[in-house]
Amino acid sequence: MGRVAPPSAPVQPARPDPTKVPSWAQPTKQTLENAALEKRPIVLFFQGEGAEYGDFYVYGDDYAALARDNAVFMRIPYNENRDKPPASDSPIPVSKLLSDNPARDYGVPVGKPLFVVADWYGNSYFRSDRKPSAAELKQMIEKVPAKVEDSNKKLAKTYESAKAAWDKSDRTNALKALLKNFKEDVVGLEAQENSIRLYHEIMDATRNRMKELHEKGDVEGLKGLAKEVKGTEVAKEVDAVIKAPVSRKTQEGK
Asked: pTM of this prediction?
């Protein structure tokens, strides 16, 4: 049975023209801050395994022009590690691009290249496991602002529901709405930042309430509170307090 020949590698130009090589930025906090300030979409190129995905895999006047005028280009070196990230009790989403392993967090197949077109916070909107032409990339880039607006509107609607519930001291439904926003796994957008601020406000109020109930020795009240904050980092704190009741002598002294 004959073997299928592997795809040919991109031919390196005999005399590479540096003006045809896209300017590749590093995935740093400062780069993201600059992109957000200018509202420039981000093109991520996750390199595949093999020399063919090197410096000249993305090469040409059109690509260089896009990196100069339309988007921030970032090249992520090949990485086969897909170990799970460190566990976190907080449900608040964090930047995939600034993580210790962006390839893992963007779900890049091991050994394969991947192109991701994202907003200026690194939220993914388009993916391609083949190299898009410069024209295709430009079309994706131009659609990003509208995608951001739609995503923010969706988050804002849920945030307003959470805020209305919290204004009525309805912790359960406020958190239910906020956790729904966090599950969208989007960062940076205005409505998500508002959601995070409200979440922290509720967590602070919950800790104060937990302390009051603990000091009263109100175990049933604490159990009810634990149910209200299920899925948050404070849930574990409440569980720990339930297991460490205040002594009767302490209660009598108050």
From this structure: 0.87
Q: Domain 18-132: which topology?
A: Glutaredoxin (3.40.30)
Tokens for 10, please give them.
């991109």
- Helix 134-167 to helix 171-182 angle (10° resolution) is 170
Q: What is the pLDDT of residues 93-141, one digit of tens each?
A: 999 999 999 999 999 999 999 999 999 999 999 999 999 999 999 999 9
86-93 contacts at long range (C-beta below 8 A, 24 or more positions apart)? 89/232, 89/233, 89/236, 90/232, 90/233, 91/179, 91/182, 91/183, 91/231, 91/232, 91/233, 92/182, 92/196, 92/199, 93/182, 93/184, 93/185, 93/186, 93/187, 93/192
Nearest-angstrom CA–CA distance, 26 and 79 = 16
Distances (CA, A) of 228 to 11, 30, 84, 176: 60, 38, 29, 9
pLDDT in tens, 149-177: 999 999 999 999 999 999 999 999 999 99
26 vs 130: CA distance, rounded Å: 22
